[in-house]
Structure to design on (163 residues):
């Protein structure tokens, strides 16, 4: 391999690494608005729609393609276990509550739901102005997220998901 080829490959690798966000939200400084970006996840680089909680920018709500479904993941920043209980949590969008069955994901402490593209919670997130996530067991902390930009980010994400 020539020096030019090596340099060109190195430049491409550097450019690719700069376009992928680290695990979590792409821009923690502005993360209270929704973002759609390629992020480094435990499974590798994935297109992710995400926002941080208003009260705690280390708490993330993210959506990713998951086969034919969409993974809706609430990732609290708290460093404690949630009892590893699969259960319903409430997504309250503009005062309308919707229970959503979630699975505890021990690798990052997320409470994840895997739903079809046209699921009610997806429609609510796309159309609302804010969402508050509540754990009826009172174990996971309640957090509120803006939905500013969520409709656009989620629509673009879903367009890229396999059907």
């Amino acid at each position: 391999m020539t020096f030019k080829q090596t340099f060109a490959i190195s430049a491409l690798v550097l450019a690719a690494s700069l376009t992928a966000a680290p695990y979590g939200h792409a821009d923690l400084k502005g993360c209270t608005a929704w973002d759609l970006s390629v992020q480094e996840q435990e499974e590798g680089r994935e297109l992710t729609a995400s926002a941080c909680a208003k009260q705690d920018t280390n708490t993330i709500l993210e959506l990713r393609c998951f086969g034919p479904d969409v993974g809706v993941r609430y990732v609290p920043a708290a460093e404690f276990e949630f009892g590893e209980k699969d259960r319903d949590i409430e997504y309250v969008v503009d005062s309308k509550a919707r229970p959503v069955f979630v699975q505890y994901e021990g690798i990052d402490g997320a409470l994840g739901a895997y739903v079809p593209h046209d699921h009610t919670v997806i429609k609510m997130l796309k159309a609302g102005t804010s969402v508050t996530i509540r754990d009826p067991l009172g174990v996971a902390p309640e957090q509120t997220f803006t939905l500013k930009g969520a409709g656009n980010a989620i629509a673009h994400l879903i367009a890229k998901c396999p059907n």
In short: Residues 3-19 form the longest helix (17 residues). The beta strands are 35-41, 44-52, 60-66, 69-75, 87-93, 96-105, 110-115, 130-134, 143-146.
